Amino acid sequence: MNVHESEKLAGILEDKGYVLSEKLEDADVVVFNTCCIRESAETHAYGNIGALKKLKKAKKSLIVAVGGCMTEQVGAKEKLKNTFPFVDIIFGANNPNEFKFLLENKLKLVHDEKDDRESFVRTSFPNAWINIVYGCNNFCSYCIVPYVKGRERSRSENAIMQEVDTVINQGYKEITLLGQNVNSYGKDTGTSFCELLEKICTTYKDSKFRLRFMSNHPKDITEELIKVIAKYPNIICPYIHFPLQSGSTDILRKMNRKYTKENYLDKIDLIRKYIPDCSISTDIIVGFPGETDFDYQETIDVVNKVKFSGAFTFVYSKRSGTVAAEMDNQISKEVKKQRITNLVALQNSITKESTKIYLGKEVEILVEGYDEKRNLYLGRDVYNRMGYFPCEEDLIGQFVTIKVDRVNGVSLFGELIRR
Ligand code: SF4
Fold first, then answer.
1. Which among 246, 249, 257, 253 is positioned nearest to 283, based on CA atoms?
2. Are 343 and 370 in contact (CB under 8 A)?
3. Which structural domains are found in the chain, ordered by start?
4. Rounded to the nearest whole angstrom, what is the distance from the C-alpha of residue 223 to the centroid of ligand 1?
5. For atom 2 of ligand 1, which residue has the closest CA?
6. Distance between CA atoms of 238 and 67, rounded to whole angstroms?
7. Is 17 left (phi over 0), alpha (psi -120 to 50) or beta?
8. Which of 72, 71, 74, 78 is nearest to 31 (CA)?
9. How far is the CA of 37 from the centre of ligand 1 (A)?
10. In the sheet where 89-90 sits, what is the strand order?
């Protein structure tokens, strides 16, 4: 989401005639798009902003802007102003129009437009990201997002469909619909995520492109949604990111996730019933306050049962301003380290096994880029696996088929056999 937010900021600057500068010293405007979901990201951002002081002193005309969710925390704008008086513009998260307005003020330009359309420079061809819903209403006890990004707000279906139309006509081959919880789309505007998916799939049924979405909330994934995904196998990828966070019902309650271990596993069964080949990835936090050995083993149990195609694993770290940061029974560093090491080893062995079945298979890849280090083109299959192959020609943006002759971790390597 943050990459896409940055694309929007770049789009505003490009509209004003700016171009991307290769070197920091050449820049006329420097924009920091920050993230405060993890405390370490915030510390990094503060370090990077501070490092600009010298440049600003040498180049008075330089405009320095800081935005993103870090600025939305209580007292953050004042703290930024006091710590870095050389910062010219401070703007909020999910609000490129605020940045545009403040920039224009700074440049003494007139601002008189604001609507639901979004302009940006897409930097990720052939993948296009489209925001469908902002904010979150869930208040998981460890997460700061609802405080800094506000409550859920769905974009209008018209604005989304116009954007889908534009990217398809521009030749983008993969669209990812984004939201903190995409399943909530439309609850505030009288429509639904299922209706949106149906609309996109029926309107563009004759176009060759892939549709993905993230993130989902397990409590909000319904049988109806799974059926819609299964109904359009040529468009919607059989890939669901399905954040578990913990396999322990007790910890899930403390996390305020509003589902149990059993609910979660039932939904996995439902996904496998309608989409047997579905690839399912997840997020897991270990070392949440009060997590006992039993709770941790419950997480391991789910990982063993589900066999995720991939997992983003995190050690719980306190985020000030959240309910969990104030909880008793914080887990020691040593225990957290042991738990994450074991979990990562287990997931790696599962991923390795699941990748092996690709050997000798033909896989369709959407070519996304060129890996300079490996001297290979790369892209992903519908299950979100990365595939690499050698080629003399630039095939970025094309669907090609490779025959897999080697696998390594989550990556597939092969020869180009069709295009
Ligand atoms: S659903 Fe996601 S974004 Fe919302 S509070 Fe929970 S973890 Fe944070």
1. 246
2. no
3. 2-106 (3.40.50.12160), 124-237 (3.30.750.210), 239-356 (3.30.750.200), 362-418 (2.40.50.140)
4. 22
5. 180
6. 35
7. left
8. 71
9. 10
10. 29-34, 63-68, 89-90
Distance 140 CA to ligand 1 centre (A): 6
Asked whether 6 lines ligand 1 (CB < 6 A), one says: no
Q: Are 69 and 35 contacting, i.e. CB atoms less than 8 angstroms apart?
A: yes
Nearest to 248 by CA among 171, 303, 177, 186: 303
Give, for all 419 residues of the chain, the pLDDT tens digit: 888 888 889 989 988 889 988 899 999 999 999 988 888 888 889 999 999 999 988 888 899 999 998 888 878 888 898 899 999 999 988 778 889 888 888 876 433 333 455 556 667 899 999 999 999 999 999 999 898 888 899 999 999 999 999 999 999 999 999 999 999 999 999 999 999 999 999 999 999 999 999 999 999 999 999 999 999 999 999 999 999 999 999 999 999 999 999 999 999 999 999 999 999 999 999 999 999 999 999 999 999 999 999 999 999 998 888 999 999 999 999 999 999 999 999 999 999 999 999 999 999 999 999 999 999 999 999 999 999 999 999 999 999 999 999 999 889 999 999 99
Closest CA to 271 of 303, 232, 238, 243: 238
- 97: helix, strand or coil: helix
H helices, E strands: number in the chain: 13, 16
Count CA within 13 A, CB hemisphere, residue 367.
Answer: 22
On whether the CB atoms of residues 355 and 410 are closer than 8 A, the answer is yes
Query: In the numeric block, which tokens belong to residue 184?
Result: 């909530």
Asked if 282 and 252 count as a contact pair (C-beta separation under 8 A), the reply is no
Q: How far is the CA of 138 from the centre of ligand 1 (A)?
A: 6
Distance separating alpha carbons of residues 392 and 202, to the nearest angstrom: 37
CA pair distance 196, 204, nearest whole angstrom = 12
Peptide bond into 126 cis (omega under 30): yes
Is 180 near ligand 1, meaning CB less than 6 Å away? Answer: yes
* Residue 288 vs residues 97, 247, 259, 304: alpha-carbon distances, Å: 37, 12, 16, 20
**Which residue from 307, 231, 243, 210 is spatially nearest to 274, judged by alpha carbons?**
231
**How far is it, in rounded angstroms, from Cα 223 to Cα 205?**
22
Distance of alpha carbon 418 from alpha carbon 399, whole angstroms: 9
